[in-house]
Structures are given as C-alpha cells and as structure tokens.
Amino acid sequence: MAAIPALVAAALLLVVLGMVAWHLAVRTARRQASARYVARQLQRHGASISAETARAETSGHWYGSPTGWNNFLLRAGIRPTRHFYATLTLRVFALPAALLALVNPTAALAALVLLIPLNLLFIWMRVSRRHRKIIQQLPDFLEMVVRMMTVGNSLGAAFQAASDRTEEPLREILGQARRAGSVGVELDVALRQTARLYGIYELYLVAAIVGVAIRVGGRTDHVLERMSAFMRDLTQARNELVAMSAETRLSAWILALLPLGLGAMIIATNEVLIVGMWEDPVGRKLLVGAFALQVLGSFWLYRLSKLE
C-alpha cells in the first residue's frame, strides 16, 4: 500500500506533462497556419517563394519541436555549462532531499514530481519569451536592411551592417548565420539553417526572399519593406489578442494546476488519507473519478483559453 501515493504522484506528473505537450502541439499548429498565411500575403505582394519553402511551411518539420536537450537550451539562450547544471540540480533536488530527511519519502517524491515539470516549464517559458522578442525585432532589422540598400549597399553588405547594429537576442541568431556564410555557405542557406535551429519561420521566409534576390535579382528592398510592414502589423495584432485573452488564460492555468498542487500537498502531508481512500471501494471510485474529471476539466479549460 505504500506504493499507492507514489502511483498517484506519478499520475499527477503525467497530467502535467500531458498538458504541456498538448500546449506545444497546439502552438505548432498555430505556427503552421500563420506561416501559410504569411506566405500567401507575400505571394500576393509579389514575393516569389520556392517550392522547397512551401513544403517546409506545410510540413512544419523545419520549425517544430527541438530535436534535443541542447537545442532546447539553445532556443532559451542558455549555455549548458557546469554552473547551469549545478543550479538546475539544486533547484530540483534540494527541497526533496530536505523533505526526505525531515518528513518522509512520500513527501520527497511528491516534491520531486512537481519540481521537475515546473523547471521544464520555466525553461519553456523562457524559450517562448525569447522567441517573441526575436519576432518583434525582425521588422526593425528588415527596415534597417532596406535603408542601407537604398543608399547603394549590396544585399550582403546591408545584411552584415544591419546585423551588427541589432540588439540581442536577434543579433546572436544573425551572427550565427553570418558565421556560416563566412565559410562559404550562401546567405539564404545559412538563414534557413538558422531558422530550423531556432524554430523561427519568419526568418525562413526572409531566407526565401534573399535566395530569390541572389539567384534572380529584382527589387528586393521593396519586398523586404512590405514584409516588414506586414510582420509589424501581425505582431501588433498578436499582442492585442494576448492582452485581451490574458485573464481567460490565467484563470485556466490556475484552475487546472490548483487541484494538482492540492493533491501533491495532501500526498506529502497526509498519505494515510490517500491510502485509506484507495483501500475503500467508494474512495477508490472517487479517486479515479477525480483523476478523470481533472483530465476532462484541463481539456475544456485549454479549449476555453484557446478561443482567444
């Protein structure tokens, strides 16, 4: 019977991880729809997009989830140093170790079950904030490139000068593309590689325009200027939508996570209550029903917050 609280704690962990995975999947679907919409707008304004770009936009593989832990940390702007791993280990295992020594193993397990997804959620939120900041910086960068091209600079020289004047975190990303270009890689290819690595589909569209300019020519400054204006309007619309739906999304997160935190606290402080409920037939039905209602309620709350 001592394993029952551990099973309940593992079930709570699966619910939290399932909610995070569900949120990431829906965000990916939204990015796919936004990428297709941006591509249609660019084509309407005269920007040619290659078949390779179109396939990448519809498939979603090139800007999807990170392929590994290091890529995940890279998108968050975190260097995987010893100091980072020491801090992460301290944040995850310090409280469970204290509870193991002072309270009981069940409390330590419950704390560990909560701290692992919370730390992953913290890093994921940092990835999301960094991604939004990069998207907000792109229109200013494109306008700077356009201004330098209008005074007589080539596309490559304008890109290099504008990237030097751009602030972080976009400067780091553009610097990586420039380093790839310095070893003989075409600028559009370097931008596509960087877009895949960081999951920035807007940068992939910029790479498509740069590739057309390198191979075909044309008024690239006009296309970049229109794309900059469209991206700025799109960013403003997204910010207004997020502001209007902030209360709904915050309520959904609180209502979904509050039962999980309350259940973990009960397991940590009074595991006898959970064991007694599990041994009783009616109590077991109540626990199973509560778990099913938690999953169903999380689903409907997420659907509610999705209707932003």
Question: Can you put this structure into words, describing what you see?
Answer:
This protein is mainly α and 308 residues long. The chain has one domain. Helices cover 84% and strands 0% of the residues. It contains 13 helices and no strands. The longest helix has 46 residues.
- How would the global form be characterised? elongated
| Gap between N and C termini | 45 Å
Pick out the low-confidence regions: 45-64
User: What is the overall number of helices?
Assistant: 13
Order of helices and strands: HHHHHHHHHHHHH
Report the sheet with the most strands, covering strand number, pairing sense and barrel closure. none
- Secondary structure: helix percent: over 70%
Secondary structural class? mainly alpha
Number of domains: 1
Mean pLDDT value: 78
Number of strand segments: 0
**Approximate strand percentage:** under 5%
Radius of gyration: 24 Å
What is the topology?
Layout: H1 3-44, H2 51-59, H3 69-75, H4 82-102, H5 105-150, H6 155-165, H7 170-182, H8 187-198, H9 201-215, H10 220-244, H11 246-269, H12 271-279, H13 281-306
Brief characterization of the structure:
With 308 residues, the protein is mostly helical. The chain is built from 13 helices and no strands. It has one domain.
